[in-house]
Design goal:
Blueprint (H helix, E strand, L loop, with lengths): L9 H20 L9 H24 L5 H26 L6 H21 L3 H22 L8 H26 L9 H38 L11 H14 L8 E7 L2 H8 L1 H16 L7 E6 L2 E6 L4 H17 L2 E2 L4 E2 L3 E7 L6 H17 L5 E3 L8
Parallel strand pairs: 6-7
Antiparallel strand pairs: 1-3, 1-6, 2-3, 4-5
């Protein structure tokens, strides 16, 4: 039995890459991107269409259907453009759009470099340029995938490492021809060419499944975030705030520093919506939350409980200190009009302040704070009222 390892010829591998990319394009046509397709996904889908056309043109050239002087320059030009766009899509997904334009410009430069190499040396130099340029663009995509390594998911880290490793294999073919024309021991240039073609196929599969899985993973993260975060103000919603509050309710049963709670409501907010419209009301809420956060410590938590009623959790804060924080927020809201498209809108808010008691539940705690807030409204609004039944400071 022969020990020779069967190897696919270059024409077959090019055909496989063409069919793989075209099949992926067909699947993307029926992929549910949601009501709005992200720019990164739009660029990535376009890149796959261009790469599919590139490999198909190269396959037709290998089979003699299209003349080589047309198929090779045209196919590689499309291929470099497609891979450059794919790399740009990775930078777009990494929230670094400033890198997208230079990447696309480099794609145009790569096409010119390849044409120059093709004119100088139709076979050798062209092969070197193709391997090095493709490897460089895939390596750029790998860096984009791993740009925020600490915040990246395990799937994103794996894709970054795998793409980088395969990109180096693709580039190694060109480096080998330049530095080791006869190969290195058992690693001949023909075998390295097979490895490079296999790496391109794995990049096709890995990037295809990887990007689609990352899209679904990020969508799932967004849905989970919306369960606890108010999308308008980017503050915890009622459910999210209660989750943050739960451990402090438990700690209140132990001796130690108290935890303060502020509940406040914007005065006459319906007038803003009626006079200036709901978009102006949204601007007011967003800017008001940003203003309040500037008055708080990093450990304090501001949440939108319901409508225009907000709550602030103040860990290790006595009642008197919580009242001072509430007064600081009240003064900031009162003295800082919010600029909308139609007018400068003046706001006021009424505050109720309490601390967590050992026997408190969420219901009793908020009931006490809400009652204090209602007394502030009844007393004329735009004021801070501590809960009368709050326990003395520890």
């Amino acid at each position: 039995m022969s020990n020779d390892m069967p190897m696919l010829d270059a024409s077959t591998m090019v055909l496989v890459l063409a069919l793989g990319n075209l099949t992926l394009c067909a699947l993307l046509t029926f992929f549910n991107h949601g009501p709005v397709r992200a720019p990164a996904m739009t660029f990535w889908s376009l890149s796959k269409q261009i790469q599919g056309g590139a490999w198909l043109l190269l396959a037709l050239g290998d089979s003699g259907v299209v003349p080589a002087p047309i198929s090779i320059p045209g196919g590689y030009a499309l291929l470099f453009a497609g891979v450059a766009i794919e790399s740009g899509a990775s930078w777009e997904a990494a929230r670094r759009p400033a890198w997208r334009t230079p990447t696309l410009i480099l794609g145009g430069v790569a096409v010119l470099v390849f044409f120059l190499c093709y004119l100088i040396d139709e076979e050798g130099l062209r092969s070197v340029a193709a391997s090095l340029l493709l490897g460089a663009f895939y390596l750029s995509g790998s860096v984009a995938l791993g740009w925020r390594w600490r915040d990246a998911s395990l799937l994103q880290r794996f894709l970054s490492l795998a793409t980088g490793a395969l990109a180096l294999v693709v580039a190694a073919r060109g480096l080998s021809v330049l530095l080791l024309p006869r190969g290195w021991g058992w690693l001949s240039n023909d075998l390295l060419s097979q490895f490079s073609s296999g790496a391109l196929y794995l990049l096709l599969l890995g990037n295809a499944f990887g990007v689609l899985l990352l899209t679904r993973e990020r969508l799932q993260d967004t849905l989970e975030r919306l369960e606890t975060i108010d999308p308008l103000t980017d503050a915890p919603n009622r459910r999210g705030f209660f989750q943050l509050l739960a451990p402090w309710l438990a700690l209140a049963r132990r001796p130690g520093l108290p935890t303060g709670l502020i509940v406040f409501d914007l005065d006459g907010f319906k007038r803003i919506n009626d006079s200036y419209g709901h978009p102006a009301g949204d601007v007011v809420l967003h800017q008001m939350v940003a203003l309040c956060r500037r008055q708080l410590r990093d450990s304090d938590q501001l949440g939108r409980v319901v409508g225009v009623e907000f709550a602030v959790l103040l860990p290790r804060t006595s009642l008197d200190e919580a009242v001072m924080v509430a007064e600081r927020i009240r003064a900031a809201i009162d003295t800082t009009p919010v600029k909308s498209e139609r007018a400068m809108i003046k706001l006021t808010a009424s505050f109720g302040v309490t601390t967590i008691r050992p026997e408190d539940s969420t219901t009793s705690l908020f009931q006490r704070a809400d009652e204090a807030m209602q007394r502030a409204k009844q007393a004329g609004r735009n004021r801070v009222t501590p809960a009368s039944e709050a326990v003395a400071d520890i």
